[in-house]
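Run folding on both entries below.
>entry_1
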Amino acid sequence: MHRLAGLVAAFSLAGCAAIPDVRPPMDTGVVEIPEPIPADTALAATLSPGPAIETMPFTGFDAAPALAAFRASCSKILFRDDTSGLTRRVDWQGPCGAAQNWLSDPTDFFKSQFETVIVGDGSAFATGYYEPEILGSRVRAPGYDIPVYAMPEDLVRAWPADMPESERTGRPPLGRYDENGDFVSYYERAEIETGVLDGKVPVIAWAADPVEFFFLQIQGSGLLRLPDGTLMRIGYAGQNGREYVGIGQVMREQGLIGDGTPYPTSMQGIIAYIRDNPEKGAEIMRLNKSWIFFRELDTDGPLGSLEIPVTRGDSVAVDPKFVPYGAPVWLDMEHDVADGLWIAQDTGGAIKGANRFDTFWGNGEDAREIAGGMSSRGTSYLLLPKGTLARLKP
């Protein structure tokens, strides 16, 4: 949920920063993810023309909501730099201007404004994420004992005092200052679950089920069904900076799920095992030291890292070093449900490299089923404003 949703922008200061800008990984760690191509950005990768845009099998059913998602993205992409190096802000002025007043066939919009580009060999890998709905309460009550913490004030970015200046590159790590004034790692999941933050960090709500809340944290955002039946939407505010561990991979390696067990290698299989083996399940969940902090949202959907609501079947999480935010992407995958046009509006800790995607499926039981079972290889084409490839490779 970037998700998550990178569901908030980073605050950067000289010595520290208050909020990280990448939400937790969105996959469950069940599948083996292909190694990324050896390039730091798309600009450093092999780029080649894709199929002629006129031959792409766009349909109005797919293109109409994709056009709406692209139009919503324009309020952001016109004012931010593209870290992939492929496009400039000015490149998006034409497509965004056309999108605002486009009234004819939406398939013609994409065919008139974009060209297809293949990054690397175009071999794509896609997973899925969704917006969970779990039971929660705004106040602590019997049966609602799991705190949903807001951002801690003492969670900051800084350089450890013993780190040489020559090694201080990129952003400082997340952590806190201890009672001696030393910069140390922030509390991990096990410490937080046993109450180290009690009375020190604001609690915005209380969840009923620790297992469901664990998976909501992985998704990065979600809905709390309150006792009166209303819904409270919460979104990613920050992360503790500790290691994320995909417990599905660990469970498969330990022979707890997969072939020869009653538990399939899916999110549903992971949850079933944890519920059937609560003591071992709690131990496994604590292997994932990452903890997510939340804020309440009043939006129509969960926020992606582009800071606009993501929409079912239209929004996809990408590595922004390889896909410009707001860019349309065409996927042709083994799971046909993921085929079609998507708009890059989110990112995540597990979404790294070219042609790596995480498709968003909204909320509800079917969304959970699709996202939990999505692990698909195929082909991707990046859609860039016409003339981009010629400018990059004169």
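>entry_2
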Amino acid sequence: MKRVIAIMFALAVSTLNACKEADPPLPDNLVQFESAEQGLDATTTEATIKLKLSRAVDAATPVTLQVTPTGITYGTQFTTTPAITTNTLSLTVPAGASEASFKLTKAADLFLAGTETITFAIASAGSPVIIGTTKQLTVKFTSIVSSGTTLTLDGGTGGASAVNAVFVDLSNNAQTAVKRASWDLGFSSGTDFRVIINNMTGAAAIALAKNDLTQVTAADTVGLVLSTSDFSPAGLKLIDDVSGDLTKTVIPSISATDTDNKVYILNRGTSGGTSAKGWIKLRVLRSGTTGYTLQYAGIKETTFKTVTVTKDAAYNFGFVSFDTGAAVAVEPAKAKWDIEWTGGIYITSDGTNNIPYYFADQVYINYLGGVTAAEVLTSTVSYDAYVESNIATTTFKADRAVIGSNWRATTGTVGVKTDRFYVVKDAVGNVYKIKFVSFTSADGGVRGNPKFEFKLVKKAS
């Protein structure tokens, strides 16, 4: 009997080993640039350039770039961090990471003809990493109009609750990743005085009858329900209009009469993987005709802090974080982004009423910056067949959520919806078609790192 058991055990081990030997090997781990071309216009002095890997490396991995400047001199007209030595830039992908980056800085007060370029080419990568197809990047010291490329967005960690929002400038092949929880309030640079709360964290706010911050205590929050996560229709009254209508912000237009501006209690939100933070009491006043004065404190604090935010017409909003107590950079300049991938509160139905609901993988357009977009079903025209002549019959909308979450499915057949694509017209009139490729393991992607392809349909005249 013991001999039979031993034989059976040996057979089981042999079968297990055979199965292990039959497991398919992992695909090659490729390192490459995000795009083959990028612009650095006259107003931009610095850019962070990334190299992406197919997956994280187990050990620190060196990558070497060959650098070829044309019409511009290293050390006096531009620099990099880390520094270039004999036309070579050495980078290291840290263990456990799937990217490396370097900073390109243009000298101050530098006047260029616009024909200058720098070519960065991947010369070598440490084993087992292999150089991918987009092995060369040309940086042009002028604005470019991309003919299109494929981008994988840097959502950071968190998967469906990815920590980053990503802004994309289609014409420049560029993406900018920003922590979703890096800000609390946005201050409009428009003609009206409007303040938004952070929809990406599920923040909620409510007005008190008081207009003196020092008179607000913890007693004012007793019995106060301030949440967007309880699926109550009442939650919609605690947030800004989800379509982005700035006439419908939960904090109304800031009055020129100080006494009209009430104190608000703000729950900073915990959606999208954000950690819980203490509630804030705040009040916003006008700072002359050009900005805002923010007063804020913790609920139990008896004194408050003040931050001044000046309107800047180059941006849709100026942003403030209560973590830093200061202005923070969030959105790029409004002329330098077209779409934003993020997560945020939108609306759904409970069968009877609309209720607030946090949707991952939202794609918003820069409607305040003049961007419009349209959804096109492939039953009308295919992505490949969509050309300039189709633009005349395309209905573009200045709707923040015209793409929204419509491009993917998380129930039923999970993955990118292949029966539609999108057409985006940027603020200067360039028209691009966009096809989402993947966003989750069900369609060959990675949650938190959606991939899409875009192509120029018509260049602005």
